[in-house]
TrEMBL record:
It comes from the Bacteria. InterPro entries: DUF1599. Residues 22-82, 115-176 form the Nucleotide modification associated domain. It comes from Dysgonomonas termitidis. This is DUF1599 domain-containing protein.
Length: 183
């Protein structure tokens, strides 16, 4: 489990570093996004991953790793938006945003560690394409919950689905970053 935690920390740092750089470039312009728009951004990224997996080639000189990073970061944005609600203006500064990023990543990571313990790292035996399919499933579940105005009868909410999408993306990033760690 120590190797697993180190691998998670490494890929999370990759995601956070890019997030912080984009935050400097654009500010928190994403604060205007309604939750449905965040979900659709994640959908675009997951569909691109699946397209590359199916076609075996990308015409844009980027592989699937940047898309997994994007899903992680948009998932965190989604969690922030669920907590704060969307805004009509950029109302958070860099320090506030990074503190919220770290808070939501810590919560997501703790959920992953608990599930990882219970499932005994079963994700390591999975294919990256399965993570893509599971992310797409979680997106469509989220879209349905959004259509239901956030209400569920027996299912987890939007926040749990975002956390699962983040964690499946982190699994994919670990497999891409540390291919020797596959079981």
């Amino acid at each position: 489990m120590a190797d697993t935690k180190a691998q998670f920390e490494k890929v999370i740092e990759i995601c956070r570093t890019l997030f912080a750089k984009k935050l400097k470039d654009y500010g928190a312009s994403w604060r205007i996004l309604r939750p449905q728009s965040v979900t659709d951004q994640i959908l675009i990224k997951a569909k691109r991953i699946r397209s590359i997996e199916e076609k075996g080639v990308s015409l844009i000189d980027e592989g699937i790793a940047p898309e997994f990073v994007g899903i992680v970061n948009y998932g965190i944005i989604g969690l922030i938006q669920l907590e704060l609600g969307f805004s009509d203006s950029v109302d958070l500064d860099e320090d506030q945003v990074l503190a919220l990023y770290d808070k939501h990543m810590a919560q997501t990571k703790e959920l992953m560690y608990a599930k990882n313990h219970d499932y005994d790292e079963a994700w390591r035996a999975m294919r990256i394409s399965s993570y893509t399919d599971l992310i797409l499933t979680k997106i469509y579940r989220t879209k349905q919950i959004e259509e239901n105005k956030g209400q569920t009868i027996v299912s987890e909410g939007i926040d749990a689905n975002y956390m699962d999408m983040i964690n499946y993306s982190l699994f994919g990033l670990i497999k891409l970053e540390f291919p020797e760690s596959e079981n």
